[in-house]
Amino acid sequence: VGGALIDWLRYGFAANIKYRFVDLYGAFIHDKIEANPATLQDFDPRASGLTLEGDFLATDRMLLSLRYDHLQAGGVISEKSDGTLVTLQNRYFLRENLSFYLRDSINVEKVSANPIRNFANLVAFGIDFDF
Q: Which pTM value belongs to this model?
């Protein structure tokens, strides 16, 4: 913004627990912009995000996942919108580095024009290739 430097503080915590065929993961991130430029009056300097996920290896080739994401948005107050998603996923591995997935993301919040909330239910099918 006009060449002004912005002091941005970010901190977070994450944990991962694995036991046999179950993998649990969680993370929390918090952002705060310390010194807002004077030109940004209508601006919320705080944002945070929470992710919780559980993966279960159902067979040697099939991974089932359940994920919860919540975003408390910062930014221009008139444009910001919080969002909450619950995602179910089934991933089938053809090889160690090649898999098909079927994912269903459900918007828990009210549908709006904001990109994080502009759908009620999003179903996606795809291929992941790691190399």
A: 0.83
